Write the structure tokens for this entry.
Amino acid sequence: VFGKDINLILILNNLSSDRKTVKVDMSASTILYTRRTVAEILKASTSVELGSKQGRHIRVKIPYSHYVRYLTTDKRIQVTALCEVMRTHGLKLLVEKTIILEDTNIIIKLPRRIVVNKAVTLEISYANPLPEPVSRCVLLVTLMNQQVKINLARLAPRERSKIYFEFTPRRTGPLQLQVDFSCDKFSHVKGFVTIAVA
């Protein structure tokens, strides 16, 4: 989840009956959806002894403070582990994982029934998922080809707040409501819902 530390486990299993020494070089980078690297945020090396048929877990932690400044709106992190089995003429294994951080901070609540030409009130709740305060908060609400910009108060660490938004649907059928939340520490956190107008 965006705003929290990332905890990973690399699992190494020795499938042979011989003892093995494995050198592990770990790295993590923030990336774009095209897989282009933005910034390296973790580099670590370790050496592991594996007995016959033995498995080992290597825990890796990427603190929020390491990735926050380098994350793009794609919210992607690429983690790689290059595992080299020593004394085997350079036998290497590359393990890769792409992590997409989740945004959990926009919730849109609708009334049960929405009817054409009748005013309706929606509840839009938003949150600061970070362990630090955020300011210059803005919500962009897009509905029926209209965009409304709402300036919001600053949010304390992990604080959740809500606003009420009123509109009158002018036709029946599905309507798309999109909410875009930005502030000084992150931008373009999106939430959307399809509204069925009776």
The chain has a mean pLDDT of 90. The longest strand covers residues 37-50. The chain has two domains: 6-100, 106-197. Residues 106-197 form a domain with the Immunoglobulin-like fold (CATH 2.60.40.10).
